[in-house]
């Protein structure tokens, strides 16, 4: 199954004009099936949007402002880091946010958010039915009242109504919310992966697009993630493409900024980023886009970086740990020093017990946080100002 997933991903990120020259017979044999499935997906997507447009399926308004953080393509776009950034920003301003996440793939992202935000006022609701999850949390903790007849919640117009640490929910954040149409949102943030933005531009599963490119016209803000890992001309080209879909969208750039490591055996221990200096490193990951993770480790000064990549949300099995151990032994034999394993926080939170089977080797978890890059006068403060203005939140 992992081999098929890898083949599908390679097809999705190979331009159609290059299929015959670069894809293997296995890849080419999958294309007719993927093409049919993509057509069926497009039809179902159209039907779903029509059902909501004609109110056959109903959208729900929550009694608090709602921010959606989503993407147009699968995996690796920085949605969860942006959700964490927003949650921390709200919490720092005395606004208790409710994060609504469906808990896909063993709820690894939800577990990671719970660990990262445990010392804040943020609350995390996990469940496929996010309307029901929101209702449960709003009933349990209460929320800041507003005039229900208003088109938008008129929060904090001229005076601060929040009571810090009161526990009342003041805003909701939809994690992976762009395609979740049941909940009305006041702000739509769309994340774009600078390293691989649109793939072959086909819909799932033939390509990586979850919706047609024209769906960008629903966005209020575009954030180009991993912008530090590409050249400026690539950013300019990407911005030009986005502006063809929606001319006046504010566009911001972000990156993942490494802050420290912690060892799997003791998550309370913070280790310097220099822990990989001149070391032989094996990057082990089951994330949406491993290239950014690998490039980050390479930039830290490791002597040699090898990697084993699995599909997004992959749950490591014991037989795979045996394969990893064999690769580590080969690296140790080749370089004459004991290699270390580096994983992402998401991988740690998904498989902490399984990773303990690598106890003969040091396993380090890279902790990173989303960071804004200054670009054409667009800064983190400008981003926050747009968010506050859109939600009518004055702090």
Describe this structure in words.
- With 395 residues, this protein is an alpha/beta fold.
- It folds into three domains: 2-53; 66-250 and 378-391, Rossmann fold, CATH 3.40.50; 257-369, 3-Layer(aba) Sandwich (Rossmann fold), CATH 3.40.50.
- Helices cover 37% and strands 19% of the residues.
- Strands 3-2-4-1-5-6-7-11-10-8-9 form an eleven-stranded mixed β-sheet, sandwiched between helices.
Describe the SSE topology.
Elements lengths: L1 H11 L6 H4 L2 H29 L12 E6 L7 H14 L3 E6 L2 H13 L6 E4 L3 H12 L27 E7 L11 E7 L27 E5 L6 H14 L5 E13 L16 E6 L4 H9 L5 E6 L8 H18 L4 E5 H6 L1 H4 L7 E11 L6 H12 L4
Parallel strand pairs: 1-4, 1-5, 2-3, 2-4, 5-6, 6-7, 8-9, 8-10, 10-11
Antiparallel strand pairs: 7-11
Helix pairs in contact: 1-3
Bin the helical content. 25-40%
Spatial arrangement of strands, main beta sheet? 3-2-4-1-5-6-7-11-10-8-9
**Main pleated sheet:** 11 strands, mixed
Q: Please state the overall shape, judged from the principal axes of the Cα atoms.
A: globular
Straight-line N-to-C gap = 50 Å
Give the beta-strand count: 11
Keywords: ATP-binding, Kinase, Lipid A biosynthesis, Lipid biosynthesis, Lipid metabolism, Membrane, Nucleotide-binding, Transferase, Transmembrane, Transmembrane helix
GO biological process, one term: lipid A biosynthetic process
Pfam family, one: LpxK
Enzyme class: transferase
Main features:
395 residues, alpha/beta, Rossmann fold, 3 domains, eleven-stranded mixed sheet, 19% strand, globular
In short:
This protein has 395 residues and is of the alpha/beta class. The chain is 37% helix and 19% strand.
